[in-house]
Amino acid sequence: MIVARNTRLTLRAIALAYLGILVALPIGVILVRTFGDGFVAFWDQVTTPAAISALSLSLLIVAIVVPVNVVFGIVTALALARGRFRGRGLLEAVVDLPFAVSPIVVGVSLILLWGSAGWFGFIEDFGINVIFALPGMVLATIFVTLPFVVREVEPVLHEIGEEQEQAAATLGATRWQTFWRITLPAIRWGLTYGVVLTIARSLGEFGAVIMVSSGVAGDSQTLTLLVHSRYIDDHNTFGAYAASTLLMILAITALLLMTVLDRRKAAA
Amino acid sequence: MAAPAATPRAAAPSGRRRTAIPGAIGPTGLGIATLWLSVIVLLPLAAVTAKAFSGGLPGFIDAIDAPAARAALAVTVGTSLVVALINVVMGTLVAWVLVRDDFPGKSLVNALIDLPFALPTIVASIVLLSLYGPDSPVGIHLNATRPALVIALLFVTLPFVVRSVQPVLLELDRDVEEAAASLGASNGLILRRIVLPTLAPAILSGAGLAFTRAIGEYGSVVLIGGGIPRKTEVASQYIQKQIEIDRFVNGAAVSVVLLLIAFFTLLVLRTLGSRAARREASAG
Known about the structure:
The structure holds two protein chains of two kinds.
Chain A: H1 5-35, H2 39-46, H3 49-82, H4 88-100, H5 103-114, H6 134-160, H7 163-170, H8 175-204, H9 207-212, H10 223-232, H11 237-267
Helix pairs in contact in A: 1-11, 2-11, 3-6, 3-8, 3-10, 4-6, 5-6, 6-8, 7-8, 8-11, 10-11
Chain B: H1 6-11, H2 26-52, H3 56-65, H4 67-100, H5 106-113, H6 115-118, H7 121-132, H8 146-171, H9 174-182, H10 187-216, H11 219-222, H12 235-244, H13 248-283
Helix pairs in contact in B: 2-13, 3-13, 4-8, 4-10, 4-12, 7-8, 8-10, 9-10, 10-13, 12-13
């Protein structure tokens, strides 16, 4: 349909105004507030001992969550794409489940499973603390990031089909050789994209982690928890802005990576 | 696809038909995947459900019938519906402009859409608070009001309808529109009878995802909403507070309600989506 010029310009104006007011303006305000007093003030706030500890904890969680998700994500994607079994639809639905669960509910469910009064609470007798400790935060982050690698790798597996893998078999390759030489290179862009999504989500997770963390500054606070506690507990608004900006920079970096990878994926 | 003939099977490490295809995962891999999904996803959710009904159905009903629980759920579902509706209109409009219009900086605007998706929810809350909170540079003080909830939820759900509609709009066959126009149809008619029906499944799907995301949202509303019981307290905040005071059954019960609403929404969407897809396929 040929839209009249006036209508087109009006629609454009409305869309840009909506996006501007909803997204661009608030982010602009934060950036101005954070860097308004100069870069040093920002730097001071993100290099306090608590901030460095928070960043380390966030990165530690990422360092655990990503390899776990890569391994189990690929296994699950292979099972869904190459397996022949009934109930595949159910498995796919379970993979998508984390998208439908509120982060708070994730935290609650983990407390009810691994907490001292939970189903697996007996492990505390062996000295293993899950809730209010690192394992709980890791499990919460794995829950919310579980779908990413699977959903990025599975379509690629469908697309490339099994012919190459079968050909490798006729030539005598073992399963591991086939996976390492044929499957893995084929899925590498989808896998990388899934990893970037996982990292971005892990760094940004808040609701699930706040439920299962003891929230002790300098000890069990992630970057997102630091932002929250600075605003609520310390009334350090500027500090909260600074930590938020740091997280925002990480998020935008992830976004840029995703855009680049998206083009690589499409070209592959 | 059928398994290959005798030669590959002889070369494969296992004699079983299903594992005869190398690179495939076989029953062990499937077992690992199932165990993994069960431990990480299913077991925790089972624990919540069990706790919610630990007092039987009457206990569950009592927990969700508490005035504060009902109010929190009403606020949550109400604002999420408003947000979904606004997203339907504005999301489609933005998608339209991004696909059918062209202007300098369009790719930057397009990238901006994904920002709320990549941004941590607590950062979204702080960001919106800086503009609409007590320190607002433009004097707007919306913190601890329902409009604040709507704004925060619109922020985090922005990408859903836009990204759902864009690919469909891109693929839309302009020939049909041009044919209709050449037969004298007005723009309004083309929009109503051709474009919108084709976009409807995508719009619904995006709106459903936005709604599901909105009802469970916590991080972005926790600071700007204020969590005032019966006014701006959303279900996730209610659950968090109940768990904090060890009222596990209450927290679990409202959690189950949120889960049920989400599942129901996604189920309805999936049914509508497949029905629409079948209609499209049969229409040819």
